[in-house]
Structure formats: C-alpha cells, structure tokens
Amino acid sequence: MFAVENISFGYPSSGSLLTDLSFTINKGDVACLLGPNGAGKTTLLRCLLGINKVQSGSIKIKGRRIGDITAKELACAMAYVPQAATTVFPHRVLDIVVMGRTPHVGFTAVPTDEDYAMAEESLAELGISHLADCQFSRISGGERQLTLIARALTQRAELFIMDEPTSSLDYGNQVRILRVIDKLAKQGYSIIMTSHFPNHAFLLCNKVLIMKNGKITAMGTPEEVVTDQILSELYTTKVRIVELDDGVSDKLKVCVPMLT
C-alpha cells in the first residue's frame, strides 16, 4: 500500500531534520508514530503528504512515487485528517464534509447531488448525521474531529494520515475517536497517526514507529517496542508498562509515568 524508502529531508537554514527513514504500511494497518516534541513527526507527515520534497530516498503509494503522480491522483489515494480546528467562515458540517469530493470534481464544477449523498453517507457512518446543518465552528472539539474524519471518508481514499487525532479532546471524545479509527482499520483502511499517548498504541495499533531526533529508533508491534526502557529513554522520564487483567477480556497493557 505505502512504502517509505530511505528518505532524508532538511531545510538549508536548519540542516538535516529527517535521516534515512524507511517503513511500509499494508492494507488495514494502523501505524502509530510516537516521539517527543521536536522529534520530526510533523515534518515526516508533510513529506508523506508531498508538501515537503524529500532530498533523498522515495515515497511510494501502490508502487508509484508520489512525485510522479498528480496532486489530484494523490488526493484520491491519500486523505489527511488534521487536528480539530475551527474556521472563521460559517460553513455547515455537511459543507465541510462534501469538500472531500474536491479531487473528484472538475476545477470549475460544483458538487453534485451524488457528492452530497456520499457526504451524508459518511456522516451516517460516524453517527453524526444530526450535525449536518450545524455550523462547524459552533460544535464541540470531538464533533469537529469526527467531521474531519467524515470528510476524509467522503474523499474515498484508502490511506488516512492523522495528525494527533485526539489532541485537546476530553477522555470520552478521545475514546470515541479511537473507536472510529479501529472501525476504519477493520473495514480495510490503512492509517498512519501521530500521538503523544503511548497507550493508544496498545489500544488499536498493530505497528509502532518510535522517532527521536529525526530518526526511527525502533519499529515493530506495540508489544515489541512500547517497553519501559524504550519509553523512558524516549521521553527522558521514568515510565512503567503495567498489565491489567479484569478476568474477562485479554490482558491490557498501559503506560504509567512515574513521578519519583
């Protein structure tokens, strides 16, 4: 589905920011990118989206270099879900979601009834049809994040790139978004997400990339790489991984920071 092969990137004024990064994403994968502030996560996402042009190496989607395909083709294959934000314009939620059809609509054309039907279908898929006529800037942060995911669904791309999808959300809305991501993966979508919460890796990811100083320092399953030692070194603070057993479901691992 998606292959990053030995990419490096940097700005003339700041030197190298990413160095020799490689990984692959398969259909249905949920890959979590963990790392401290300044590790290069956002820079990497900008490279994956084709915004930053890598200095060496290649990024391929379904075997094609992203630099060799048009912006329209790339948008049909890959959808970006930013952190929940607002807008100064009084757009309805439905209008925001139908914007996902932009790659499929002609330059001078307007969305058709079919495009709006797809947008309504995405809202229904996420259980937020009741928000269709609400003003996007006036709904809650969790509802805005669900709206942006609905927009990505309407785009009909198979790969989602999500930048801290639960950032600034309360606990309940975080879980709600994580459930949606898990559901999308089970439907066959591939997802790359950044997070500052290692517990997210245990909850829904099958692949974890540990990133520090512009390099991938560890990669594998959550059980392999989300460990006491790796997290303690990554965040320069003592961390313990604890197993919970409620006697009903499989044991769940959680990350607990230690204050002493």
UniProtKB/TrEMBL annotation:
<feature type="domain" description="ABC transporter">
    <location>
        <begin position="2"/>
        <end position="238"/>
    </location>
</feature>
<keyword id="KW-0547">Nucleotide-binding</keyword>
<keyword id="KW-0813">Transport</keyword>
<keyword id="KW-0067">ATP-binding</keyword>
<dbReference type="InterPro" id="IPR003439">
    <property type="entry name" value="ABC_transporter-like_ATP-bd"/>
</dbReference>
<dbReference type="InterPro" id="IPR050153">
    <property type="entry name" value="Metal_Ion_Import_ABC"/>
</dbReference>
<dbReference type="GO" id="GO:0005524">
    <property type="term" value="F:ATP binding"/>
</dbReference>
<dbReference type="Pfam" id="PF00005">
    <property type="entry name" value="ABC_tran"/>
</dbReference>
<dbReference type="InterPro" id="IPR027417">
    <property type="entry name" value="P-loop_NTPase"/>
</dbReference>
<protein>
    <submittedName>
        <fullName>ABC transporter ATP-binding protein</fullName>
    </submittedName>
</protein>
<dbReference type="InterPro" id="IPR003593">
    <property type="entry name" value="AAA+_ATPase"/>
</dbReference>
